[in-house]
Amino acid sequence: MLYEIIKYPDPVLEKVAEPVTRFDDELAKLVDDMFESMYTAEGIGLAAPQINISKRLTVIDTSFQKNPDDKVVLINPEIVSREGSQYEEEGCLSLPDVRDKVKRAAWVKVRAQNIKGEFFEIEGTELLARAFQHEIDHLDGILFFQHLSRLKKDLTMRSIRKRIKNGDW
Ligand code: NI
User: Which of 20, 68, 83, 104 has the most Cβ atoms closer than 10 angstroms to its Cβ?
Assistant: First the structure.
C-alpha cells in the first residue's frame, strides 16, 4: 500500500512521535509499505510522521534500491555518539523542491530496534550519517530547514507560504 506523503506545515510533522511498542505483523507490513512509498516518491529516507503516523520509526536506503544491504529500518532510534562535522545540501519529501546546506555531524552511531524489537547499533558517515540525523529529527518534530540561520529560515518559510498561496505546493 502506498501512503501519501504529508507536507509541511501539517502539525504531525512538528510533533514528537511516540515510541513503537508492538513488534508484530502489522509493523512489518508498515515497514514494507514505507519503503514502497519512499521509493515511489524518489526519496532515500522516510519517517513515519511523514505518512501521518506519529511513531518513532524510519526507513532509509541511501543506495536507492541499488544495494539491498543498504536498506535500514530504525525503530525507536537514538543517536548515542557523534563526531566531526559536515555541511552538505539536504532535501525532504515533506518540503518539495526546498534544498539547502545543513550542518550535521560527520559520523554518528545509532542505537535502535529492528522489526522484531531486537536492539542493534549502526554507524554511518557522509550521506548515511546525514540521513540518520535528518530522519531521527523527524521523530522529534524537526524539519531540516529549522537548522538554518534565522535569515535563511525566514526566507524559506516565506517562499513556502507564497507557493502554498499560489497552489504550487
Ligand atoms: Ni525529511
Answer: 104
pTM of the model: 0.97
Catalytic residue among 4, 121, 126, 135: 135
- Domain hosting 42: range is 11-166
- Measured from the Cβ of residue 102, the count of other Cβ atoms closer than 10 Å reads 19
State the Cα–Cα distance between residues 69 and 99, nearest whole angstrom.
Answer: 27
Quick check: is 123 catalytic?
Answer: no
d(CA 20, CA 147): 26
Instruction: Please count the structural domains in the chain.
Output: 1
Give the tens place of pLDDT for each residue, 27-84.
999 999 999 999 999 999 999 999 999 999 999 999 999 999 999 999 999 999 999 9
Contacts of 21 (CB under 8 A, 6+ apart): none
d(CA 110, CA 166): 40
CATH of the domain at 81: 3.90.45.10
In a domain? residue 57? yes
Distance 116 CA to ligand 1 centre (A): 25
CA of 144 to the centre of ligand 1 (A): 7
